[in-house]
Design a protein that fits this description.
homodimer; Cathepsin B, Chain A; two-stranded antiparallel ribbon; seven-stranded antiparallel β-sheet; alpha+beta; about 35% helix; about 20% strand
Chain lengths: ~240, ~240
């Protein structure tokens, strides 16, 4: 009984955020991008073209269900697509987590629904296609680790090409549930991808093993008819 | 007469933002951080420790007078100081351009005043000192190019050390007036500093010659008894 209580308290310690902490400790399988190792990975990365324009447009998701919204805004600004007006910034324009919604996006998925339950991988594909971009949605269950690695690393190496990952945080030992964030770089030698996590109040950007990320994407999403999560490839309209 | 009209129209072209453009074109004296040259400068920079944690916390100023507020928030989050609560992110905490204000900051400079007229260099020093940090305010008129270059590049190379620049945009051929933004890196060979401009709707981060930046800081601020602008050195309380 005592042993069970001890095990339970260990489990609680492992899953409960420390009350006074601002963000969460990083599990051992992930490397913070601003650790010495993380900085060296970026400097030496084979594919990191996406990093620079994404870092210039890095955002924190506005609410706990807006990971997909923040990810889209980062990519649209990084691509320098024609942006809507923002009264505070007139005459300048930029995409924000407020002005990204319009009649076309409302018809696909109302903002109110996103506020309640977020966005699925297929809804993300449809929402992105409202802009003048080419979009390819990849369910992890239809891909494999090799095709994921080669097609995503190729995108991250080309100007104007971007990738959003839709993964199950728990599979990365993070808290928790389904999540969206942009991928920014790939290092071949270590086989690590860099995720620019948009829940910046919670976790820093992290380097993660390709296989582990693929496994976290190859998870069933009950909000999407149990289809698997995956990734979206985005480029300027050809 | 025709020649004068032609000159006038050239002048208007040079100072009027293009009506359909989202942001402003960069003048020739500045290098965009996501240009090929800008990326190479960062990879090879001698002092770039500040860059990584600042890039992870990069923000857009919330209003056209909040450049100083956004700059402070970036530095506080980059330093991982104990942050106030944010209802949307509970139980996680982070500094935002809303929750940075409290009774101590209101006593120094009310939020309403900042909304109207921004922050001067000396007010910035006082506002920063509300947090558990060591702050040194440097008016450019009391410094010179050599002391500026050596003390700022030394800060940018040390973990937990940050620098905010207060400069007159017009002196960099930018639009326009006094501005605050964090400095993030220094490259010795080219003698260039990287500014992470918080008016992201207007300009990207830029590399600028040390001498040009110092000249832009060594300008009189009529909101601060005509004292010169300058920079602030910030580090964790020793």
């Amino acid at each position: 009984m005592l042993r069970k209580l001890f095990q339970l308290s260990l489990l609680l310690l492992a899953v409960t955020p420390p009350a006074q902490s601002d963000s969460l400790p990083l599990p051992d399988n992930l490397i913070s991008s601003s650790s010495t190792e993380g900085e060296e990975l970026l400097i030496g990365a084979d594919a990191r073209e996406a990093y620079f324009t994404l870092a210039e447009n890095y955002l924190t998701q506005q609410t706990q269900s807006f990971c997909g919204v923040a990810s889209m805004v980062m990519v649209f600004n990084a691509m320098q697509l024609p942006a809507p007006e923002v009264p505070e910034y007139a005459p300048y324009r930029t995409f924000t987590q407020d002005n990204i919604f319009n009649a076309s996006t409302e018809a696909i998925l109302p903002r109110e629904t996103i506020l309640k339950q977020g966005i699925t991988l297929d809804q993300m594909g449809a929402l992105l296609a409202v802009q003048p971009v080419d979009v390819m949605v990849r369910h992890a269950s239809d891909a494999n680790l090799d095709t994921f690695r080669s097609e995503v690393s190729s995108y991250l190496a080309q100007p104007g090409h971007f990738v959003l990952a839709n993964y199950f945080r728990n599979a990365l030992h993070q808290q928790k549930g389904g999540h969206f964030s942009p991928l920014a770089a790939y290092d071949r030698e270590s086989d690590l991808f860099l995720i620019l996590d948009v829940a910046r109040y919670k976790y820093p950007p992290v380097w993660v093993k390709a296989e582990e990320l693929f496994t976290a994407m190859n998870t069933k999403d009950s909000d999407n008819d149990d289809k698997s999560r995956g990734y979206v490839l985005i480029s300027r309209k050809s």
